[in-house]
């Protein structure tokens, strides 16, 4: 499974960064960067929570 971002929807609120800083970051221009696209099986539920908490629904798991 992979985590995806719709960068047209993303407002760089950084909620995902706060919830999983080893997976998400903001670059110097405050744009979202996905550091780890592959979701390990043992973190799937955690990443589902991160996706659910995105205020713009810009994140998904495929």
Automatic annotation (TrEMBL):
Its cofactor is [3Fe-4S] cluster. It comes from the Bacteria. Pfam families: Fer4_15. Keywords: 3Fe-4S, Electron transport, Iron, Iron-sulfur, Metal-binding, Transport. This is Ferredoxin FdxD. It comes from Williamsia phyllosphaerae. The lineage of its organism: Bacteria, Bacillati, Actinomycetota, Actinomycetes, Mycobacteriales.
